[in-house]
Specification:
- With 177 residues, the protein is α/β, with parallel strands linked by helices.
- Helix content is 34%, strand content 15%.
- α3 packs parallel to α4.
- Bound molecules: cobalamin (B12).
- The site of cobalamin has 30 residues, from α1, β3, β4 and α5.
């Protein structure tokens, strides 16, 4: 753990599972990580409908939306969600990441297949970064890359224009951005 960040760098984050994903400890884990760093978290929970995620983002205007998926449907549900989200003008610049088990090949997702194309598809559709358990180093390395990505974000209120505060280039290898 990296320790607490300063108040000026505190992010307001929304964490959510996707509509058909019943797993919830992944969300608890992400919440604990974010809170440990000093960030504010709204956890929308598991099996959250797209409309609820979009509604929460429109209401809270967070600095970051974190989508977690483990049941294997993330590539489909994740694409549907990000396309709907990017179609909302107020959310077109919101930093959004997705991570977890993006395929259906089990456990750590290390099935020998090339997941690069999937990550590219997700980023092309609008995700700022993808943290795939199947990427090199497994889930632990993914969380470390996520941590680095967090450090690269600037809270919306700290930017003059209030515009997009993402930093794609800082996402690092494995965090397809
Ligand atoms: C508990 C469990 C369940 C419980 C969930 C209870 C609950 N409410 O949480 C129940 C019984 C409901 C369940 C159901 C199913 N499950 Co289940 N489940 C598990 C199990 C045993 C543990 C999951 C867990 O809690 N892990 C602890 C959390 C903390 O870790 P995690 O989920 O792995 O998340 C980590 C990473 O993925 C990563 N991460 C996740 N999201 C994100 C996001 C970001 C941004 C980042 C950076 C990182 C990140 O960080 C987390 C911490 O390291 C796993 C197997 C396993 N040992 O992991 C299978 C597992 C996840 N389940 C699986 C499957 C297939 C199912 C079912 C489809 C089974 C079925 N045929 O019905 C259903 C799906 C139901 C649904 N609608 O979603 C598969 C998924 C396979 C895949 N994706 O390739 C697994 C991997 C089992 C397996 N080896 O096949 N499951």
């Amino acid at each position: 753990m990296n320790g607490m960040i300063s108040a000026e760098r505190r992010l307001r984050t929304v964490v959510s599972g996707l509509s058909c994903d019943a797993h919830l400890w992944n969300l608890v884990c992400l919440r604990l990580l974010l809170e440990d760093r000093g960030h504010q978290v709204t956890n929308l929970g598991n099996t959250t409908p797209d409309a609820e995620i979009l509604g929460a983002c429109c209401t809270e205007l967070p600095d970051l939306l974190v989508i977690s998926t483990v049941n294997g449907h993330g590539r489909l549900d994740g694409l549907r969600l990000i396309r709907a989200l990017r179609a909302v003008p107020a959310l077109s610049g919101l930093p959004v990441v997705i991570g977890g088990k993006l395929g259906i090949e089990g456990g750590n997702g290390r099935d020998g297949r090339d997941h690069t194309e999937l990550a590219a598809q997700l980023t092309a559709a609008g995700y700022d970064a993808v943290f795939d358990d199947a990427a090199e180093g497994g889930p632990e390395a993914g969380l470390a890359r996520f941590d680095a990505f967090l450090s690269s974000l600037v809270p919306r209120q700290a930017t003059f224009a209030g515009g997009r505060s993402r930093a794609r280039a800082a996402a690092g290898p494995g965090a397809a951005a």
